[in-house]
Amino acid sequence: MEIKRLPKIELHCHLDGSVRPETLFELSKKEGLDLGVETVEEFRKLVEAPQDCKSLDEYLEKFDIANKVMQTKENITRITYELMEDVAADNVKYIEIRFAPLLHINKGLTFEEIVESVISGIKRGEEEFGIHGNLILSCMRTMPVEACFEVVEKGAKYLGKGVVAVDLCSSERAGFPEVFKAPINLAKKLGYRITIHAGETGIGENVLKSIELLDAERIGHGVYSKDCPEAYKLLKEKNVVLEVCPTSNVQTKAVVSYEEHPMKEYFEDGIKVTINTDNMTVSNTDLNKEYEILEDMNIFNEDDYKQMYMYGVEASFATEEVKEKLRSYIY
Q1: How far apart are CA 44 and CA 284, in angstroms?
Q2: Alpha-carbon dihedral angle through residues 187, 102, 57, 63, given to the nearest 10 degrees
């Protein structure tokens, strides 16, 4: 199939993991960071995860530099706008960008300034590149529950103005859904849609609890759903969509290879699978690359692709008007 000409939907993309390396290198020098490298090519080794990355935690270390430079309104807006430009060039028609606002307060920005900077970049990108975008506010599971309440409560004023959902991300530990039940349930009441990182690092029960306790409509990764029969059953019964990120899953050792990934098994058994990048820079990927790898390995074909595209449309947190436009692209 001609991957590049096909329309695409990106439901799982982290802003701080998808900064152009050239921009990140430039801003690092501007901000006075001592990185010990002289060229962009050398710099890439600092921000891209290697294929022999040993774990999710090692993978997450690659976000450090991006978060250090994403501490001004100008930098945040520029980075967001450039991401919109990059994905539009790959024929992505709709993207949901996620980021954790509380990672960007280190130089005095307010929560409002941070969120508005991202929304500004999205809106400018929409106007210039004919793409639609929305924002997901991420709560870090490494932060106290009170921090999650802060994100949910302060972010509510932006619902319908660029923000559509809330997420839980970062290192995965057993039992986290119980810990964050109260703030995520509040988010649901306030009108947020819910997507949760779960089952990425070998804990299938987290998928079950994310659906039962947190009302997750989508699951980020969900690789280990099959290891919890109750979770697997619930994914099918409730039509919960998986945001699968193949290259990232290989790098974090969620799976040992693309061929060993259960995504095809899930898809053929009726679970709604979508393909995403996770982090375009950290994983050195884009949606074209993801689909090309899967096609070359005979994991998915064009008919599968079209089905997953439609899963992405229906699972997106876009308005019905935008969804209708997205449906028209595939036809």
Answers
A1: 9
A2: 130
What is the C-alpha to C-alpha distance for residues 36 and 25, in angstroms, rounded to an integer? 12
Q: What is the DSSP letter of 213?
A: T
For residue 47, give Cα distances in angstroms to 12, 187, 283.
19, 32, 9
For the chain, the residue count is 331
Whether residue 286 contacts residue 86, with contact meaning beta carbons closer than 8 Å, is answered with yes
Rounded Cα distance, 54 and 108, in Å? 35
| Rounded alpha-carbon distances, angstroms, from residue 57 to 60, 180, 187, 222, 299 | 5, 20, 27, 17, 28
Q: Across the strands, what pairs with 169?
A: 140
Centroid of chain to Cα 187: 19
The stretches in the chain having pLDDT less than 70 are: 1
Which residue segments constitute the domains of the chain, with CATH numbers given?
3-330 (3.20.20.140)
Q: Which candidate, 162, 76, 170, places its Cα nearest to that of 123?
A: 162
The residues, any chain, with a CB within 8 Å of residue 201's CB and separated by 6 or more, are 55, 56, 172, 224, 252, 254
pLDDT tens digits for range 174-214: 999 999 999 999 999 999 999 999 999 889 999 999 999 99
What integer pLDDT is reported at residue 139 of this predicted model?
Answer: 98
- Over the stretch 105-159, which tens digit does the pLDDT of each residue have? 999 999 999 999 999 999 999 999 999 999 999 999 999 999 999 999 999 999 9
Max CA pair span of the chain: 53
Nearest CA-CA partner of 218 in 169, 261, 158, 259: 169
What are the catalytic residues?
A: 200
